[in-house]
Design goal:
The structure is a single chain. The protein is mainly α. It has three domains: about 120 residues, Tetratricopeptide repeat domain (Serine Threonine Protein Phosphatase 5, Tetratricopeptide repeat), CATH 1.25.40.10; about 80 residues, Serine Threonine Protein Phosphatase 5, Tetratricopeptide repeat (Alpha Horseshoe); about 80 residues, Serine Threonine Protein Phosphatase 5, Tetratricopeptide repeat, CATH 1.25.40. It is built from 20 helices and no strands. This is Tetratricopeptide repeat protein.
């Protein structure tokens, strides 16, 4: 009798119609994971949603938000740019999301442009207050206030993102010659992106073109005496050259507290590399880890800083986490043993 029941159960099971999840199912699972701050899981679900329904802009916008949360701003912007190119101005929220990402990257002219575009389309939209607040912060933070220098049009966005992502990769991996080549091309095509000039000087210095790098950065500083990137570069350049002039630029940094995580990280790293470990440690602790953990430099210099102030357990934990996230660190010794 029991065997008959089992066979009947098997027969019914074999007749069940399998459930095939569609985009909404994946999307819902992704949102649930996102709310629990399980960002890698959320991204996997959202990718499935986009694969199931490639033309749904809502799925893509949510995926861009996840990329933003983990600090992959270039990927987020690529997704948002694709949405705008395929839908026109129908999804105005993309403009605010782009503005927010560019602000985090320190590209304030681009951030300003997209925030204004959003407010032009949605003056009373869901993100209108955030966009207005962002513009106020930009105006306060960006002393240059050059509203006409908005960077490339959206048609050039794909190419710009590729250059930014590639240069960032080589700089983080300390591949100076490759970074120089990419940045030279980028500066030819997008000369208005001044941050690239500072990154170029940085790569030149560590590629043994020290005099050229210092002269270039001094000229940039003369144009913008309060430029954060000039002070971080020159502090590091002079320190490496055993020139006491580095202390003047460190003093210029100690009272600066930027609004953007990328700039906060740059100061923290500069302080670490010039021996200001206590000050550096305080800056690292203020960072939003979800945003900066995509940077190799975060783990390399935060772990060293922790070690130097005798937070050895924390230093080891940071280094091991960095090795799990960034393969390049697997090939390196602990920074306090180099």
């Amino acid at each position: 009798m029991q065997n008959v029941k089992n066979r009947e159960k098997d027969r019914k099971s074999n007749n069940l119609i399998p459930f095939i999840p569609e985009g909404d199912f994946y999307f819902t699972k992704g949102v649930e994971a996102f709310r629990k701050r399980k960002f890698e899981v959320a991204l996997k679900w959202m990718n499935k949603a986009v694969e199931a329904v490639p033309k749904d802009p809502l799925y893509q916008c949510q995926m861009s938000i996840i990329y933003t949360e983990i600090g992959s701003y270039h990927k987020a912007n690529q997704v948002l740019t694709n949405v705008l190119q395929s839908t026109g101005d129908k999804y105005a929220d993309c403009y605010y999301l782009l503005a927010n990402n560019y602000a985090h990257l320190g590209l304030l002219n681009d951030a300003r442009k997209y925030a204004k575009s959003y407010l032009d389309l949605e003056p009373e939209g869901d993100f209108s207050e955030e966009a207005k607040g962002l513009l106020q912060l930009i105006e306060f933070d960006d002393e240059e206030d050059d509203e006409n220098d908005w960077g490339p049009p959206i048609d050039d966005e794909d190419e710009l993102l590729i250059y930014q992502e590639t240069a960032f990769y080589h700089l983080e991996h300390q591949e100076w010659e490759k970074a120089i080549l990419i940045l030279e091309e980028m500066l030819t095509l997008f000369p208005e992106h001044k941050t690239a000039n500072h990154e170029y000087a940085h790569a030149l210095f560590f590629n043994n073109e020290r005099k050229k790098a210092i002269q270039m950065e001094l000229e940039l500083l003369q144009e913008e005496p309060n430029n954060l990137f000039s002070h971080t570069n020159l502090a590091l350049f002079y320190y490496e050259a055993n020139d006491e002039e580095y202390k003047r630029h460190i003093r210029a940094l100690l009272n600066v507290y930027p609004i953007h995580e990328q700039q906060k990280l740059r100061i923290a790293v500069t302080l670490a590399r010039t021996g200001y470990y206590e000050e550096s440690y305080a800056r690292f602790r203020m960072l939003s880890k979800g945003i900066v953990k995509s940077h190799v430099s975060y783990y390399r210099w935060y772990s060293l800083t922790a070690y130097r102030i005798e937070e050895v357990e924390k230093a080891n934990a940071l280094w091991q986490e960095g090795r799990r996230k960034h393969n390049v660190l697997v090939q390196e010794k602990e920074p306090w043993n180099t």
